[in-house]
């Protein structure tokens, strides 16, 4: 069944992961794209990742996808170390990357064909097309689809593999504002149906708040997680509620400071934001566990200010 009520996702642990790349035009120099980065996600959690361009967001997702390898540190899905790509870790990009010569139905089943599972799983193709509301477009080609529809095909193509972790790298970044808001609800609906563990990279602060159980704020040079904010606003969230707007203001303040030259990126943390103990369950002696976790103001955490 497509509409599974139980959690399909697995816990994800990123432990002290570093990754460097040669500087452009000078192989002797290495830039630290990710510096001793640690993040733990519970099964079925949805975490938003925001941060300026070049702070290592895509690098982090590529490492989790197994498309690249860390210089040091470990990545785990459940009890399994990540050693390479796997269908159990789906990746959706800003560009849906559909095969233009295949219909919607065949695009969705492409991964099953590649893994020799189509015969066994064929009934699920129709179920997943229904799940993303595209059953009427089964025989349409990608050039017949709007941007939002194409992205729904990409999501169905990833979800049909029943991923334990779904990695979303600015998946809605190319959509107009109205389609984007509708698609945010669509992604949330899919997440609630599947309870897949989801890591969503976005440049849109509202999207990060609207979607995430937590928001990870990254900063560049070197790329690292500066803050993790718990968002405990009730779902469905109200984009114009006092609590939502207050949290938005706090994050804008943090990111503004992150862009100030020569200053501690988030050193001037708002007095409204409380710095907590790291509650991620990571052992204190593990590398990179010093990244603090912060919580938004009490009214945001409790959601009592919701109109
Ligand atoms: N394959 C690569 N070779 C060399 N440098 C790389 C490579 N991939 C990433 N980098 C560098 O690592 C840093 C982080 O890149 P990354 O793509 O992860 O940033 P990002 O946060 O996803 O940025 P954006 O928001 O623009 O997508 C950048 O300085 C980038 O130039
Ligand atoms: Mg990127």
Q: Please estimate the helix content.
A: 25-40%
Q: Can you list the strand order of the major beta sheet?
A: 6-7-8-3-9-10-12-11
What is the string of helix and strand elements? EEEHEEEHHHEHEHEEHEEH
Classify the beta-strand content into a percent band. Answer: 15-25%
Structural class: alpha/beta
CATH class of the largest domain: Alpha Beta
CATH homologous superfamily of the largest domain, by name? P-loop containing nucleotide triphosphate hydrolases
Overall number of domains:
2
Radius of gyration: 20 Å
Kindly report the CATH topology of the largest domain: Rossmann fold
Mean pLDDT level:
84
Q: Give the cofactors and ligands.
A: adenosine-5'-triphosphate, magnesium ion
Number of helices: 8
- The appropriate CATH architecture of the largest domain is 3-Layer(aba) Sandwich
Distance N terminus to C terminus? Answer: 37 Å
Low-confidence stretches: 1-5, 258-307
Question: Which labels suit this protein?
Answer:
eight-stranded mixed beta sheet, binds magnesium ion, alpha/beta, 2 domains, 12 strands, binds adenosine-5'-triphosphate, 307 residues, 31% helix, Rossmann fold, four-stranded antiparallel beta sheet
